[in-house]
Design brief:
1 helix; 7% helix
Amino acid sequence: MKRVLTFCFLIGLPVAIAAQETPTKDKHLKPHSKDNIFLGASLGFTYNTLTYTTGYRAFSKYSGGVGLTAGVPFQYKFFEWLSLYAEPSYISKSYSFERTDPNVNYTERNWTNHYVQLPIAVQFSFGSERLRGFVNLGEFTGFWAASHIKGVEQEATTNSSSWETLQGRGMPYSYSENVQFDKERDNRFEAGVWAGLGLRYEIPFCMFVWEARYYYSITDMQKDYMINQSPRYNNTLTFQFSVLFNLNRK
């Protein structure tokens, strides 16, 4: 419920601010009559963590994972300070799991999850005519398109009682394979809110953009398929560079 309330608040805030359009003579607040449509390409890297409760599993932990993101950003300027922003994109949301309990099998698993997503935002900018800072506030929806897992398993023995004896267990074996989705378990739809902070440099025919983003998912990666299950939510940081071209410039 907390994530849903956060989603509603962060979506409603930029919409309410954008609705307060006051006529003015300031050139930065006048509606754009030209040079207001931009389209380009972006590339960057991600760091994803998983919000998950391990409960009584004292020897278990989840860690973050790195990946890539690439997209096709679109920007429409209403004013110099206010724009609509959207970016159909690919994004990797990876994480790892490790269990070191000496009384059970040692487990190490690394997931690479591939998503196709559409972030949409209201962008507020500030600064000079060419060099401007900006803030993005919006929402995103996505589809969990594919997943790959790499791992190591090592069987426990009856006389193993501490971590020091772990390497004396059965022979470890490793594996690497694509994950087959389970329609009863896996929730492949994702939605949430996001915020971005960046800097852009504009020249007559294009703009260069550097941006850091945070994606906050409000949807569980699992469906409600078992009793006392712990929800899993993605939390993703991205750092990316974009080039957007002015489609109005002739």
